[in-house]
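pasting Bacterial alpha-L-rhamnosidase N-terminal domain-containing protein for the record, 291 residues
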Amino acid sequence: MTRLSYLPLSTSSTSPKDQESGGIIDTFLRKSVWVWPEEGGYPAPMVPGDEQRAFRKTLSIPRRKEAKSTTIVITVDNYFQLYVNGVLLHEADRTHDWGKPIAFTVPVSGEKVVYAVRAINKYADIGLWQPSPAGLRMGVEVHYTDGTTSGVSFTGQDKSWLSERLFPEGWEEPEFDDRRWKPAQVMPNAFANGPVWGSLERPHKLWVATTLPPANPTFAQPTLPPDLPAIATPAPTAHLGLSEHAMKLQNAFSSGEYAGFAVGLCLGAVLASTILTFMFSRRRIREGKEW
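structre below
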């Protein structure tokens, strides 16, 4: 997981420009749609409970333009973790209300801006192991130093919003190779002849970071937060294809522990062989005496 973080953030009010027609909040509410990776065996928008999925969106900065900041409006059914250019912006929060989108503005730099979202779906209200609706809705916009913007990009606009069910370490980094990731599919807004998601609340609070984090932070690399489901934590690339239980067993042993385990097996085999030989010899001696 990344070591860089925008946290903690300050708050302010969203700007009238963002709220007006064509602004990012207005565009998000009117045009963005719910998306999710394709889940085999589940009728959309129903997906497995207590699972997490990854999303990436990249905006390239045109020549002769210089990125200054980016504004993001996002919500996830049920909750999410958000990165911008590999920097943690929003930690996973199980109390998130998907009906209340969150808006952020943070400084950015470089030739591209990469948005990475870890989206987590909870179990259905009717009980454990039941699938439930899940989705991501998001709008992003880059502000340039010359006062212009990239325009608003939003989920469902095109196939550049990528998603994946299984994702390795480093998936949130800007240089991660996502060419094999598939476009996120649009979720139907109705299921079983009824609505799934209603209208969203218009965000008026803006979470703000005013400076980029240091390039070489001194604090320790964080572990996965407790609010993430255990059964869907992403595996390192070398572990892809292993079950989670197998990965835990594999990660639980160091090379020294493997060596000790092997020596113990050998000693156990020798001891068992000695005992069997002794018992067999005593039986032969007893049979000889009786004869």
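The chain has a mean pLDDT of 81.
The radius of gyration is 27 Å.
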